[in-house]
Amino acid sequence: MNTTEVLQPTLFPFPFQHHLIFCCVALVFFGYLYMKYKKPHQLIMAIAIPFSLVLWISTNRVLFYAVGIIEVILLITALVLNIIHKKKHPELYEEEKNDNENKGKSE
To answer: Are 35 and 15 in contact (CB under 8 A)?
Structure first.
């Protein structure tokens, strides 16, 4: 008898363990950047990416859409805070620009 395995589709194209590792790496990365540069959008991203783990709690569509809406709000907030912060503190961004230009010249 020939039996084939049927895979059940999930919300994510990769398993929970990979999602968890990605979120932990993103949390550490953006947490480090925030501690170093104190840019508010980095803190928002440190919260927004791991927040997507909430989707693994339940398969409820209301939760799915609520997390999606919250994620969009957090991403828009990060974008707006980045623009505002760049206008209020252009010297922080000029320093990064100069560092990147100097790295390109040394290669």
So the answer is: no
Residues 33-45 have pLDDT tens digits of 999 999 999 999 9
Residues in the chain: 107
Number of neighbours of residue 30 by Cβ within 10 angstroms: 22
Buried b (16+ CB within 10 A) or exposed e, 38-62: ebebbbbbbebbbebeebeeeeeee
DSSP code per residue over 15-68 = -HHHHHHHHHHHHHHHHHHHHHH--HHHHHHHHHHHHGGGGGT---HHHHHHHH
